[in-house]
Amino acid sequence: MTSQGTAPSKKSPYLRLLAYARPYSRRFFLALGCMIAASACNVVPPWLLKNVVDDVLIDKDLSMLNALPFVLVALFAGKGIASYGHQYLMNWVGQNVVMDLRLRLYDHLQRMSLKYLYGKRLGELMSRITNDVTILQNLVTSVLVNLVVQAATFAGMVGFLLYINWKLTLITFAILPLTVVILDRAAKKLRGVGHAIQSELATLSAVVQEAFGAIRIVRSFATEDLELARFRSSNRDNFRAVMHGVQVQSALAGIIEVVLIAALALILWLGGKDVVNGDLTPGELIAFLGYLGFLVQPIRVFTSVVGSMQIGLAATDRIFGLLDTPEDIVTPDSPAPLGAVRGSVSFRHVSFSYVKGQEVLKGINLDVRPGEKIAVVGPTGSGKSTLADLIPRFYDPDSGTVSIDGADVRTLDLRELRKQIGVVHQDSLLLRGSIAFNISYGLPGLAREEIVKAAEIAGIHSFIESLPSGYETEVGERGVTLSGGQRQRIAIARAVVRNPRILILDEATSSLDMEVERLVQKAMDKAMEGRTSFVIAHRLSTVRSADRIVVLDEGRIAEQGTHDELLARGGLYHRLSTLGETTVP
Ligand SMILES: Nc1ncnc2c1ncn2[C@@H]1O[C@H](COP(=O)(O)OP(=O)(O)O)[C@@H](O)[C@H]1O
Ligand SMILES: [Mg+2]
User: Do residues 5 and 108 touch, judged by C-beta distance below 8 A?
Assistant: First the structure.
């Protein structure tokens, strides 16, 4: 299940969708067969009616009468079985296509860069995976089924009509489009009136909402009468729109009926003449009219299917559009071996922007020795988090390189790279599951001692032990509620359990109060031991002990050095630290 290297396909979305049904083609064609069979059963009844009239009622043929009940029951039993067959089979195929496509989409989305994902609203992505895929399933199953069944039924009935009397059929089909056009016009007009009523109603409620939302203002300006007048006028507009709708609706209902009956009358008159002349039997005329009546159904379903098909194809377009968006951050075809990482990190002329033309990092040069502890400080929005995010390659720089032990991160295997980097953010999220699951996240089957060791580094072991179920305690919605400080320490354990060479702590203590911060700070100090570390922190106390402090300002390194050196310089760091904080909110 990999979607790497998905080149945008030029094929039509409908064909691509059918390609997803290919693995299930046997059931698919079986379903098609069932559909044709069900349609055939639809076509027969008016023909039976002809036999009833001509052979039974007129010629008094008893054997025909006796056979009739059996034929009818057998026919509908057959139709029932065929319908069951195509519905079950098509849904089976459709649901399988949905499962496959959902999985593809999910897999693809998970691999998309954060830059892409953050640019989208979560709801939009979820809508692709749930709504759009469901719409699409509808397209495969009900729309396709309707299309086939109704088309086959329509063709069968037209065939019978031609067979009964081709001249009458041709005349009928000459006037049919005219009626369809008239009916279509009428439907459009009705929709227009419906919209108008809706929008008047919306205006009315907006007027109410506005007036009551601003009721204090209305009161203080004593404008109740003015507002009432405005509401009265809106209310009257609404009345007019509704009454206009009633007029149109009632008039149209009559007109439609007249048009239909006129068409029917014409056909009846022509057909009746044929019966009188002996060109047509009475049973044939009745069957003919019967077929005409039944024809309405396929035509109606057809038009509604066209609507659903457009909706379905739009969803298909959106889904394939998403699948075709190339993954921009991928492991190269032949990744450079990483080996035992020492942990040096260097930025060379690195520039980066989320949005074209707005550089967030500008020409960053920074060399970090293995095991060095770097504090990154600077005003909010100066690019600290972005700088840190480039190391695990959440983003690629626009220009310049980020390297680890001298190897450009873009040449490395993504998994290998990220395994070497532990990250703790502000307000760490824990996932649904036990504490042990959360600490060993992504490392199934990790030995308990390893988990405990990580918890000890994070200073949370004794707390976990004190819980009734210890490491098996569930966290998340249905589990225990952990405080911010406890969550952060579990997140630290999660970051160090892989024994990464590089640790990134991005405002890990920023949302904690002073008291708890000290505990988490201790855990962080322990976690950083022997690792190259990047600490982004708010409070001066966290930063002071770093080997080197890098001060970012508007995407540039404004100054760097030790705490004392920077204070002596009297620059941005000096200004920030006199505020007692290293970032200006
Ligand atoms: N996903 C994103 N999409 C667009 N702009 C972003 C995104 N993340 C951050 N930015 C912008 O980039 C700049 C730097 O952000 P960030 O690195 O988070 O700063 P810091 O961590 O120093 O507060 C800010 O102006 C921020 O608005
Ligand atoms: Mg930040």
Answer: no
Residues β-bridged to residue 347: 366, 402
Of 284, 305, 197, nearest to 241 by C-alpha is 197
Q: For residue 143, what is the DSSP state?
A: I
Could you report the per-residue pLDDT of 439-457, keeping only the tens digit for each?
Answer: 999 888 889 999 999 999 9
The Cα 135–Cα 138 span in angstroms is 5
Instruction: Provide the terminal-to-terminal Cα distance of the chain, rounded to the nearest Å.
Output: 44
By three-state DSSP, how is residue 227 classified? helix
Q: Which residues contact 159 (CB under 8 A, 6 or more apart)?
A: 43
Q: What is the mean pLDDT of residues 55-82?
A: 91
**118 in contact with ligand 1, CB cutoff 6 A:** yes
User: Across 369-486, where does the E strand assignment appear?
Assistant: 373-377, 399-404, 407-408, 421-424, 433-434, 474-475
At CA 354, angle to CA 349 and CA 355, rounded to 5? Answer: 115
The chain-wide mean pLDDT, for the chain, equals 87
The rounded distance, in Å, linking the Cα atoms of 292 and 160 is 11
The answer to whether the predicted template modeling score (pTM) of the entire model surpasses 0.85 is: no
Is 354 a pocket residue for ligand 1 (Cβ < 6 Å)? yes
The answer, yes or no, to whether any atom of ligand 1 lies below 6 A from the CB of 381, is yes
- Rounded distance between C-alpha atoms, residue 469 and residue 467, angstroms: 6
